[in-house]
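Dear colleagues,

For the upcoming journal club I promised to circulate an example of a predicted protein-ligand complex. I picked one with flavin-adenine dinucleotide because it came up in last month's discussion. The inputs are reproduced below in full, followed by the predicted structure.
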Amino acid sequence: MAHGHGADTEFGKDPKYLIPVKQAPFYGIHRRMRCSTICAGLEVNSENQALTAEGEPIEGLYVIGNCAGNFYGGVDYPLDIYGLSLGRCVSAGYMTGRALAQK
Ligand SMILES: Cc1cc2nc3c(=O)[nH]c(=O)nc-3n(C[C@H](O)[C@H](O)[C@H](O)COP(=O)(O)OP(=O)(O)OC[C@H]3O[C@@H](n4cnc5c(N)ncnc54)[C@H](O)[C@@H]3O)c2cc1C
């Protein structure tokens, strides 16, 4: 670990972003690891029915939110569409609940 040498040997941050913190008082906050969204999950069809390995819907088993997979089209969460995770979780829950209530 190097401090005050113009290089971040611990995290490799570009030196142009290193700003000296010299003036007290100093404050710290406790940060925890968190998971904002999940890109994998159980495979579902357009009605949010869970699918078997063969792609057949499992009667009576519905999956929504982060538990449902095959939504983002890959292993990455696209950051160019704001609210994508919450949007899909809420709308899938609403649509599935409404469809089931009408059955
Ligand atoms: C810090 C942070 C920032 C985020 N920012 C954004 C953002 O800007 N835009 C965006 O689109 N998404 C954002 N997300 C992601 C989004 O919030 C989540 O992907 C989404 O809320 C997940 O919804 P969900 O219904 O799948 O799960 P959750 O919202 O986690 O709901 C699961 C629920 O199940 C309950 N539960 C768990 N176990 C049990 C049990 N055994 N019995 C009964 N209930 C149970 C939990 O209490 C919880 O209420 C963010 C997430 C985090 C953590």
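Two points we might discuss: The two ends are 62 Å apart (CA to CA). The first strand starts at residue 49 and ends at 51.

See you all on Thursday,
B. R.
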